[in-house]
Amino acid sequence: MNLDPHYYPTASRRMVTFGKRGMVATSQSLAAQVGADILRQGGNAIDAAIATAAALTVVEPTSNGIGSDAFALVWVNDKLHGLNASGRAPMGISGEALRALGHEEMPAHGLIPVTVPGAPAAWATLSERFGKLPLPTLLAPAIALAEEGFAVSPVVSQLWQKAYTRYKQYDRPEFAPWFEHFAPEGHAPKAGDIWRSPDMAKTLRAIAQSGAKAFYQGELADAMDAFSREHGGFLRKEDLAAFRSEWVDPINVRYQGHDIWEIPPNGSGLIALQALGILEALGDEPHDPVETLHRRIEATKLGYVDGLRYITEHSDMTHSVEQLLAPRYLEQRAALIGEQAIDPLHGNPLLGGTVYLATADDEGNMVSFIQSNFEGFGSGIVVPGTGISLQNRGWSFSLDEQHANVLRPGKRTYHTIIPGFITKDNRAVGPFGVMGGYMQPQGHVQVVASMLADKLNPQAALDLPRWKWVAGKTVEVEPGFPDHLAQALERRGHHIVRSTDALTFGRGQIILRNAENGVLQGGTEPRADGAVLPV
Prior knowledge:
This protein folds into 2 domains: about 5-15 and about 250-355 and about 415-520, Orthogonal Bundle (Serum Albumin, Chain A, Domain 1); about 20-70 and about 85-245 and about 355-395, no CATH class. It is of the alpha+beta class. Strand 12 and strand 13 (about 390) form a beta hairpin. The strands form 5 sheets. Strands 1-20-19-15-14-9-8 form a 7-stranded antiparallel sheet. It has a 7-stranded antiparallel sheet with strand order 7-4-3-11-10-2-21, with helices on one face. It has a 3-stranded mixed sheet with strand order 16-17-18, covered by helices on one side. It is globular, with a radius of gyration of 22 Å. It is built from 18 helices and 21 strands.
């Protein structure tokens, strides 16, 4: 193995978790317990994923909410299915309208960057097609947590305080409901404080009983429409009513004898696939750990600059997925990697890039599921009386008419949240994911390479200190990253910056199935309040 944990003396030594009948891994232990209980009740991996996702909107509202978007990769009956539940821009929004309001770029917070939330539709769509238990049963634990309250966990409390400070800068009436709902005592809850939300319980119950129709066509849609109109937003009931989740064909590359799968654009999983494809094109992994790290960083940079240049709504892309993943093009990109760090530029293939959970059951089903409000609580907007915190995915749109991801009415923006999945010889190996904004494709590359090239188990792969390419030759490393490796990378031309905030390096979960005996092994993120629970 090339990056043995002995190179990282400060890495965690948490043991990998094994299970036989089923498994749930996610970033918050209460939500993991909800999913495990659903499996014990006779639900399948899809049911467990839905229940866990709904519970996460309550117990980790700092990363996702009822107003989130979602994506899923679902292995059922020996086939991998992809679900895109990312929302579209309101039909009434446009670059011209925003420039008339004085905006030169998309604002980060408030009602303007809000696109149609997709998470409730994802739950209902997954349940209808693949679930065993009724949706009200699956959402009942989340409803109970919201009504009865729960003790806030340590990492969530840190993220809550960051959001409180962030939204305090906005002295506008549309932000007041966020403080009334998420900081009713005048401050963010501390670790160990009890927090509850009757409003979220009421909303989740309406979603459960209506199969999410109340959210997109009923009283909840009316509430979102009214609040948006009152405060100058663009989201309307017609936009919500028109929303549909989309079943999509996952995309893949071959790496280390396995197939690595991601959701196609508008998701940024293409970035991870390009990076892994470039590493595969480079040939055998070197025995030198510095060279190994250098290659992985450079490949990720090259994937990222292509992704940021070309990824947008699939139908609007100027270069196809097939062109960007073509073996000849990946070989051309790989040839750019030499001894020294490069300042990467996008290529041209026509010449020759949050909460995450994984579940598994004893029927062979496995789910890779991710949902997110984008940055923290998202837009900072809570619809009064509903507990719905709206995402700010529209922040990723560009107002530059020449940009691939230019804002258009009804368009889906470049999306950072990406679920991953591994297969081998047409059999499921398992789901994986690393949440954390623009860290996600980089996290995918790091954990996949650690497991498949370095032969680490899922927990060891998640425990390793991470790096994060920022721009040009600048790479941030987290506190536990070994100094001797950082110095060696500096000699290769990388500008290494030590970060003091481990929470910015992503938070992942992994479940793998042994092909011979069906035993599951899982890992959970040491940087979160998570748990991996066997059933």
